[in-house]
Amino acid sequence: GEDVEQSLFLSVREGDSSVINCTYTDSSSTYLYWYKQEPGAGLQLLTYIFSNMDMKQDQRLTVLLNKKDKHLSLRIADTQTGDSAIYFCAEANQAGTALIFGKGTTLSVSS
Amino acid sequence: SAVISQKPSRDICQRGTSLTIQCQVDSQVTMMFWYRQQPGQSLTLIATANQGSEATYESGFVIDKFPISRPNLTFSTLTVSNMSPEDSSIYLCSVEGGGNNYGYTFGSGTRLTVV
Hints:
By secondary structure, chain A is mainly beta.
């Protein structure tokens, strides 16, 4: 079945780049997503990428997609303490109607 | 993208009771989704709610435990019935973004603690 895997923790220093990795199983996914969840808050859509793209850049965020390896990454440049949160990778389910989430990567940024 | 108002934001409930969570969307949407996020875990889809038909439940979730209403295209409720401490979770509703935004928008979540 569909599955999304992420590393659970990442710790970086303020000003460094953060790279959060994700692998997925459903090669038919049209869109892949990155969501951010701050403590006690709901989910915020950070960015998404079409499956026919290799890269998408949006200000400090860069998404790389390797369809052959079913690997997705999120790079955050110049990481700030406000970026500390849980980051979820997600793909649409086979019906294309809802999302399958990874377990989330907790990003900790130290000053 | 759509804006979702979800309430209550949190509640502490006694075991054996039921809680109804409401989601109001600022635009008409065909499908609304209900997710559960258990402590320290990812989100799991509970069910998909279409207006005018019964909700479609995912494996492991049943209508008797999680009845859903979808009376119109902007509103849905999820009830957590006969609660036990294992139901302590964050419950979130979601809709597809639509338009130029292909992402899914989420409500702010209901943090439920069952004691």
